[in-house]
Amino acid sequence: MPNPWLALDLGADPAERMSQVGRAHERFLTGGTAEVRSVVADSWRRSAGARVSPDGTAPIDLTDGDLDAYRAAHPLARVLPIFRDLLGGLAEDGAHLMAICDAHGRMLWVEGHPSVLRGAESMNFVPGARWDEAHAGTNAPGTALALDHSVQIFATEHFTRGVQRWTCAAAPIHDPATGLLLGAVDVTGGDHLAHPHSLALVRATALAAEAYLRSQGPEAATVCVLGREDAVLSVRGKRIRLGRRHSELLCLLLLHPSGRTGDQLGFDLYADDLSPVTVRAELSRLRRILGPELLDSRPYRLRTEVVADFVTVTRLLERGLVAEALESYAGPLLPSSDAPGVVALRHQIHSRLRSAVLASADSALLSTWVNAAWGADDLQMWEALPGSGEQIARLRAEYGLATSVQRSRN
């Protein structure tokens, strides 16, 4: 059986295949079926669903100092020498580009011969540009991120016409401590890249990057609480699932990095039903789990850097990066918790993100929100999303609200 992640079967004529897929692409754009390999067909449908223009170009998200600061702080900056060592020859041969993007499809580095870079600039294949499928359509790095799998995209398989003279192969890169996506590594060039060797090369490069990050150890402990009933803590190479009260305590400590007294934590957990003995016992157990090097007392505070998913979402919103914040949002924080401090934090983050998405009026972001489990019944979001009449009518009926037509008659 042919490898679905490879663009061409061995012995296939690239020119003939390019023409064949190009005709299929035009038929798809005019309402026909996607008569191409399933990986590409599914990606075309996602691109069309995100309303990517086939004649559009990738948008630029970051430039100048903002881009420099973002790249410097990104975990893949530590692996850049490995990328250059393994792919530098290709990037300098006058025919190829090496590109590294983050988990949101934002290009961090694009390197190659100046003549090839000039050609790439015409389609915004440059650092700071967004190449995820929702913004640039089908392309190797964007599709590799969408599927979390290495993939080749050949010439006319690209969704946007301006990219169809290029062929690319990309592989996702993961944080070895958490398993989360960090980004992707890509090689872009001519149709000769539609060969098993290019896919194997980017996959091997991604594995080498992950191995290097693993050997360096985690730079900080990480905590995931969004969309989860209990926190998952990754520290010292181990993943620990905390119980409900310990999850709540950890969130509260992260919310107050300068520290919190036992009484303050007790109020955040129990409100008027404060039990100092119970709070101290829970904190003592949490300290045994975390270790004295992580949790201090008098006041209680975390002694080391801890990267929390809800803090990441908050910081992205503070920088106005709404799309990135939404992509990082796995759902409400500890949704079953009834601890007053956690309930307030959960509501604050969810409401702030929701308001930012609504204010953006971005169809792709609105669609992402209403297609998530926690946003499926959000009537106001559906009303802001064009073409949602059926869903709006359904929700209005469920909520016992009059339709817009009925309101206008009354």
Automatic annotation (TrEMBL):
<protein>
    <submittedName>
        <fullName>Transcriptional regulator</fullName>
    </submittedName>
</protein>
<dbReference type="InterPro" id="IPR029016">
    <property type="entry name" value="GAF-like_dom_sf"/>
</dbReference>
